[in-house]
Amino acid sequence: MIELFHVWKQYQKPHWALSDVSLEIGSGEFCFITGPSGSGKTTLLKIIFRELFPTEGQILVDGVNILKIPDHRIYKLRRTMGIVFQDFRLLFHQSVFHNVAIPLQILGLPYKEIRRRVFNALRQVNLHHKMWDFPQRLSYGEQQRVAIARAIVNNPSILLADEPTGNLDPELAFEIMSIFKEINKQGATVIIGSHDRELIRHFGDKIFFLQKGKIIGKEEKQ
Amino acid sequence: MIFRQLWYLVKAAGSNLWTFRGRNLVSVLIIGFSFLVIGIFLALSNNLTYLGQQLSNNLAISFFLDRNLKPGDLEDIKNQILASELVDQVTYVSSADALARFRANFPELQEIIDNLKSNPFPPSYEVKLKEKILSLQAIVYFMEKIKSLKGVTDVQFNQEWVEKMESLSRIVQAVGFFLGGILILASFFIISNVVRLNVFARKNEIEILRLVGATNTFIRIPFLLEGFVLGLLGSLVSFFILFILIKIFPIYIGSSLGAARELFSLRPLTLEQAGWLIAGGVVTGTLGSVTSVSRFLRV
To answer: Smallest Cα–Cα separation from B210: which of A76, A109, A59, A42?
Structure first.
């Protein structure tokens, strides 16, 4: 379970990127955070995996206050999460295989196991035929799918995705969402920052509406 | 599992060294040239030390003796001389030996000698001092002591040379410490900045590793290995260039400096110096790399 209590974030005075955000996302939920550009979606996601510290407030992940975790222990939190970054953050001098394999290599898994899991993850995003290509030779959408494969390869218990379908055609966007839904069915909590109304309407179980850093509404499917 | 991770990290370091070979080559060359400057200075300093030793080897004191000394007295004086720690070797030069030596060294003055009725050269003890003894005070004290012995009539010693040697040695040492200190400091800053730029160019990679759950150690190790290899290669490059310089430098300065060429020759580094230079390269490369990575490991 992820709980945010009165979270505020300020990059520069006098503007607040997040203002008094409190929310609760239960284990295994499929949740969207939506709102116009600049509403604070990315900031909120970054705070959840502690790339950013809030100016004020507290965040609990599975009952642990993540702001109190010392820097040298934060890797434990991140290993339970899969993150799809808005800018993909791929290593362009490494092959698709190596990019996707990073979270597994960190764990010290045997090469055979890594290869099997990477292949499965790439097959899920329909990119297994480009396993040995380099990211710069891939299209924007394909690079995005590599980023998704890297996020799911570790079977994370929490999956965070920032605009994961932003550059994909509607058909592929639906396909990717279906993958996320599948991972969610296997027990993972999925939180997606998106402003694609069609996708949200179709897939969202729980939706938080953000505007100018404030939660202005919440919708939950029964 | 640890071995698998280590193997992965070694492979990652190797792969990074090859992938960024252009940038790494520049780092190696900069490290190499920085250490080359230190190496050249060491080679010059080695030469000056060598010259100093050569000069001190040639330093000899002649104690002139009374012609009528008995063999027992001669032996006493010799023993007194040998008792000093400064002395390496004592040779007795009889009057006849001295005359023969004069004839051999100055054949043009043969006539003057022939016109003399007796041998003008007194017998003497020629004392060769030990190497690396350049304390003028100790030498003067020793000379005064032997001169006061019964049967020693005079002493001959080029004090001026010893004084010059002493001051030259002090200047070389002072210049050595000053230049060496500045060069080492400057090299360290250059090298750590080069490594820092190298790391900075890969800050994206460090960030990704951090965000997907890598420990700081896991991120640091490949950079540490890369810094180690770059430092090692850099110092080896400096050795290689220094070797070539030592070979071709004498040819280049051959005719231009005349007698002073001896002063500006390069003498190969000792094993100890070579070891320190390599260790310096390795330590600078590794430390520069690790401290630079640490800046990107916060949070």
So the answer is: A76
Q: Residue A138 corresponds to which tokens in the numbers above?
A: 């891939």
Taking CB atoms within 8 Å and a gap of at least 24, the contacts of B259-266 are B262/B47, B262/B51, B263/B47, B263/B48, B263/B51, B264/B44, B264/B47, B265/B47, B266/B40, B266/B43, B266/B44, B266/B46, B266/B47, B266/B242
The tens digit of pLDDT for each residue in A80-130 reads 999 998 888 999 988 999 999 999 998 889 999 999 999 999 998 889 999
- pTM value is 0.68
Gap from B18 CA to chain A (nearest CA, Å): 11
Of A76, A78, A110, the CB nearest to B211: A78
- In whole angstroms, give the CA distance from residue A68 to residue B116: 106
Location of structure tokens 């080897």: B57
Q: How far apart are CA B200 and CA B168, in angstroms?
A: 47
- Between the CA atoms of B269, B270, B276 and B279, what dihedral angle is there, to the nearest 10 degrees? 80
Mutate to test the interface with B, among A68, A75, A84, A154 (most CBs of B within 10 A): A75
Residue A16 per-residue DSSP state? -
The CA radius of gyration of chain A, in Å to the nearest whole number, is: 17
